[in-house]
Write a structure and sequence with these properties.
431 residues, alpha/beta, FAD/NAD(P)-binding domain, 2 domains, 9-stranded mixed β-sheet, 5-stranded parallel β-sheet, globular
């Protein structure tokens, strides 16, 4: 693939910021339409997967759902789950497959609107563009509660994005805070390694890996869940900020059952609310959190049962889940004695201070419709629930990228200006 070298004051018809799956999918769609552009990547292709995932990390969606435009998964294990290094290799191969015009090692540091389009400052050069696609993703700044500073000074603390393997942590018991996908999978990784794990739960839902003879993802895909537009829901904001269901693709895929972990010795707690006098103060909601996660999983099974019945599908009958453990009490404090390390699986916040264009709401979320902002020529791609459940995944980003590429084409036709990529502004050509 050609490596692009940015020149000071160069002008591009389209600049795509971010060389992950969303940025690459957008580049493929632009290339297919003959649109000159450049993709800026602060590190290397696949760096988010390479640098922010632990050693045993794997996808939670089957490989067949990896459907980047022009490059669907073609490996030997369509129903399996790619490991971290395989995901990186998949993205690197994708970038080579269509000679993406990529500038690696170029970090965008400022974006401003101008009378002619946009000015983009990077740590290499300042360039201008008619249109800009922001494919920087939603997981930018690791989020750790402020009261983490009040934990004992000798306690090893790291965010889930820094976790690699159990051997990385100091000897002793480990506290994992958060039960989203990362928290549950890291807790399992430590548990399987024989570490004593203390897991602080939250309200994240869970989903079964398999049900009635198929991966649940396959049922949901056939039922159209991943293609359902967000504006078909009554509670758009609530849907957009939902936490992902926890499950795993490890060892061929299985449920993550926190109750079974507890039966095997893992210590479970309710939500962490503060740190006081060296003690963790906990909300007594462990039972409620476990019950909620189970209820969501069983509700998904209900919808699958209804679909099977409505289509008269022949599928094996499966007994429903029965809880294998119940909490005997609800401790409201936790002494850190014996705990040597804390893994904060508390998510990420956005880092958009460099985008000096008024496209954010009061919460700092980009305002858009299917990735098209209110500022002409500025777009987002790769956001969770940008348009559908599949938007932030390998399975749905292709549709979003295609939609935005068409919007970019239409705007180019409306403005009537054609730029030759990489030339100074003084050498523009008008169609």
């Amino acid at each position: 693939m050609p490596q692009v070298s940015l020149r000071e004051d160069a002008h591009y018809p389209v600049v795509v910021v971010g060389g992950g799956q969303a940025g690459l999918a957008t580049s493929w769609q632009l290339t297919a339409r003959g649109l000159d552009h450049v993709v800026l990547e602060a590190d290397r292709v696949g760096s988010e997967w390479r640098n922010r995932r632990w050693d045993s990390f794997c996808l939670v969606t089957p490989n067949w759902q990896c459907r980047l435009p022009g490059f669907p998964y073609a490996g030997p294990d369509a129903d399996g789950f790619m490991l971290r290094d395989e995901i990186v290799a998949y993205l690197e191969s994708y970038a080579k497959s269509f000679d993406v015009p990529l500038a690696e090692g170029v970090r965008a540091t400022g974006l401003e609107q101008t009378a002619q389009g946009f000015r983009l400052t990077t740590d290499v050069a300042t360039v201008t563009a008619d249109q800009v696609v922001l494919a920087t993703g939603p997981y930018q700044r690791p989020k750790i509660p402020r009261f983490a500073d009040r934990l004992p000074g000798g306690l090893q603390q790291l965010h889930s994005s820094q976790y690699r393997n159990p051997e990385q942590l100091d000897a002793g018991e480990v506290l994992v805070v958060g039960t989203g996908q990362s928290g549950c999978q890291i807790a399992e990784d430590l548990h399987l390694a024989g570490r004593q794990v203390h897991l602080v739960t939250g309200s994240a839902p869970r989903v079964a890996r398999f049900y009635r003879g198929r991966d649940v993802v396959a049922w949901l895909d056939e039922m159209g869940y991943y293609a359902k537009g967000i504006h078909e829901f009554d509670d758009v904001d609530a849907v957009r900020f939902r936490v992902n269901h926890y499950v795993t693709g490890r060892d061929g895929g299985r449920d993550i059952d926190l109750r079974r972990f507890a039966l095997e010795g893992m210590k479970l707690y309710g939500r962490l609310v503060e740190v006081r006098d060296g003690l963790l103060c906990l909300k007594p909601d462990l039972r409620a959190n476990l019950d909620h996660a189970d209820a969501v999983s069983e509700g998904i099974k209900d919808s699958i049962d209804a679909f099977i019945a409505s289509k008269a599908i022949q599928a094996p009958v499966e007994a429903r889940y029965q809880p294998v453990w119940e909490p005997a009490d609800e401790p409201e404090t936790l002494d850190l004695q014996g705990i040597s390390a804390v893994v904060w699986s508390t998510g990420f916040s956005r880092d958009d201070a460099w985008i000096r264009v008024p496209v954010f709401d009061g919460r700092g979320y980009p305002t858009h419709h299917r990735g098209v902002t209110s500022v002409p020529g500025l777009y987002f791609v790769g956001l969770p629930w940008q348009h559908t459940w599949g938007s932030g995944r390998f399975g749905g980003v292709a549709d979003d990228a295609a939609y935005l590429a068409e919007q970019i084409v239409q705007r180019r036709m409306q403005t009537g200006v054609r730029w030759i990529a990489g030339l100074p502004r003084s050498q523009k050509t008008v169609a």
